[in-house]
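For this section, I looked closely at the sequence of one protein beside the tokens encoding its backbone, which the following lines show:
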Amino acid sequence: MPSTSTPACCASSLKSQSDDWSEIDASGLLIGLNGREGTSAHSDGGAVISFTPEGSIDDEYARLQSAGATVTGEISDHPWGRIAPFKDTEGNDLRLYAPPSE
């Protein structure tokens, strides 16, 4: 069961927290932490780094694809935003994230 207490060293940087999501402001760099299930039979879940593009997630995903990035799925829409998964050259899971439109 995840801990719901926040260490004193992090309390001033914590922007939001729930059972499965926390946001930490690291001097202007927003770090989001959430639980993640495995995405394949050999995966146990784990960390994934998400990047928010300055422009459109659609345009940036197309740019990554044309540059030869290993894409692992299509852009998906969720109530909390849009994600576009891909892998780095070492095979680590990464994704683009765009917050929901207001």
In short: The CA atoms of residues 10 and 57 lie 30 Å apart. The chain is about 10% helix and 35% strand. Strands lie at 14-17, 21-26, 29-34, 49-51, 70-71, 76-78, 81-87, 93-98. The chain has two domains: 1-34, 36-98.
